[in-house]
């Protein structure tokens, strides 16, 4: 094997070992574009993105845009108005599932609070069922803080 062939083989092996996946990068970019343009959201959950990408690779749709539109139907729901983010979109998730956006408000310190709700399996007085919970995200100039709690009763 000559020097050129040896280098080509070496670079091919490095490329094969590289975790960068151009198809997944394109998928993520197009997903982010659709979420921002249509839902005013961002997919901050890697579990959500990974599940969606796994479905994409299994189904192999010919039109990614249409396929994503169908898969995102009923997700990233805003009960009233869509969130108006103070900074980057930071939609809340639970186990890779986007929560419902309820409301936003600001305080006197210029923090913006976003209220999301969801349901999770749990026990109330010995009875198994769905518990409603709230996640409250605060965006400030210093960063973001996420709080969550269950509503029982």
* Main sheet record: 4 strands, antiparallel
Provide the domain count.
Answer: 2
Mean of residue pLDDT?
87
H/E series: HHHHEEEEEE
How are the strands ordered across the major sheet? 3-4-5-6
**Alpha-beta content class:** alpha+beta
Regions with pLDDT < 50 over 5+ consecutive residues? none
Approximate helicity band: 25-40%
Description:
There is one protein chain. By secondary structure, this protein is α+β, with helices and mostly antiparallel strands. The chain folds into 2 domains: 1-76, no CATH class; 77-153, no CATH class. 37% of the residues lie in helices and 31% in strands. It is built from 4 helices and 6 strands, in the order ααααββββββ. The strands form 2 sheets. A 4-stranded antiparallel sheet has the order 3-4-5-6, with no helix packed on it. α2 packs across α4 (64-72). The chain is elongated and about 70 Å long. 12% of the residues are buried.
Question: What are the key terms here?
Answer:
single chain; 153 residues; alpha+beta; 2 domains; 4-stranded antiparallel beta sheet; two-stranded antiparallel sheet; 4 helices; 37% helix; 31% strand; elongated
Task: Please provide a brief summary of the model.
This protein has about 150 residues and is α+β, with helices and mostly antiparallel strands.
Secondary-structure topology with pairs:
Layout: H1 3-17, H2 22-39, H3 46-59, H4 64-72, E1 93-94, E2 97-98, E3 100-106, E4 112-124, E5 127-140, E6 143-151
Antiparallel strand pairs: 1-2, 3-4, 4-5, 5-6
Helix pairs in contact: 2-4
């Amino acid at each position: 094997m000559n020097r050129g062939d040896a280098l080509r083989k070496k670079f091919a092996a490095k490329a094969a070992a590289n975790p960068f996946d151009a198809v997944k990068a394109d998928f993520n970019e197009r997903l982010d574009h659709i979420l921002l343009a249509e839902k005013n959201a961002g997919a901050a959950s890697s579990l959500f993105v990974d599940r969606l990408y796994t479905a994409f690779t299994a189904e192999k749709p010919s039109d990614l845009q249409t396929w994503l539109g169908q898969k995102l139907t009923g997700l990233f729901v805003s009960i009233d108005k869509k969130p108006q983010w103070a900074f980057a979109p930071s939609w809340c998730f639970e186990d890779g599932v986007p929560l419902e956006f309820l409301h936003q408000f600001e305080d006197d310190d210029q923090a913006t609070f976003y209220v999301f709700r969801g349901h999770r399996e749990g026990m109330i007085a010995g009875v198994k069922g769905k518990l409603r919970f709230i996640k409250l995200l605060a965006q400030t100039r210093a960063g973001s803080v996420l709080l969550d709690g269950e509503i029982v009763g």
